[in-house]
Predict the 3D structure of the following.
Amino acid sequence: MRKIEMVDLVTQYQEIKDKVIEALSEIMDQASFINGPIVGTFKTNLENYLGNQSIIVPCANGTDALQIAMMGLGLRPGDEVITPAFTYAATAEVIALLGLKPLFVDVDERTFNIDYTQIEQIITPKTKAIIPVHLFGQCANMEPIMEIAQKHHLFVIEDVAQALGAQYTFANGTYNKAGTIGHVAGTSFFPSKNLGCYGDGGAMITTDKDLAVTLSKIANHGQTSLYYHDIVGVNSRLDSMQAAILNIKLPYIDRYIEKRQKAASYYDYLFESLEQIITPYRASYSNHVFHQYTLTLQGVSRDGLRDYLASVNIPSKTYYPVPLHLQKAYNLNGYERGMFPVSESLADTVLSLPMHTELDEEQLTFIADHVIKYCNQAI
């Protein structure tokens, strides 16, 4: 049996190795390292993949994508931004960096995504935006979120870093790709993502042509043309080598997603009679692209299981052990333990198992057998 990895990028690379080497050699030969032609090619190809007249603005990473999106929307210090308490810190980080005020809400215990029913009750005259995070590979419930935003004249910034390629289905049966529903979205091409490069990379997604122009300016020092700066910007560019790798991997993304879904279904099958765990929930309004396969444990020690798995060379991860409202850096509103019980419970009970495109049934069975063994011993 091959060594089990949390994410096996080495084996995935073997299939595309020749294409990657050829593409990188071409960039080296042309010395087109920054804003080379391949960046534009990838931008167009990703726009075509997402559809819905999407406009892609590449940037250096997913955190920059969120920050530039908020700058492009004109948010100002003191403005409030609503986001879930259970997610990675980057979402709150950029809010704080811009002098904005994060307002946290709890998440749905099944999907782990923002509980839209709690949003409206915390909106104030200072609230300007909502950032739903499509956590672990499944869309937040965007239709009611967009209705709330429209009612209160709020911007919606989708954090699609973990769900690129997922599809949201509206009540009338129409559908959109994740990232093409809100006013703007930010995504990451970190290597472990479903579409990942071999370094840092990111992009913004919007259907608003004027906003896209503004975002492009901000990402390039606020320039309209070289040395002419109309607005305050940043330096955030997707380099040509990363764009080349992404352009090679983009045609594989749906196959990558199918492999992840197949692995997740096999996990589900192996765990179906195990009462101590809850397997990932699939919402009716979104498919799941399984950036992570995350269990919720019942009556067994999460940390104990993680340590046991490590002892038999099975990696696992805890996403996220401290919810944002209890983080020292982002607790700007005097939040206390107990205010967001679902987020706090998940922080203590969830565990993500290996999930990637190269998992085979032997590895999945080995992982599941040891999870089952530990849970049965813990009864």
Observations:
- The chain has a mean pLDDT of 96.
- The radius of gyration is 21 Å.
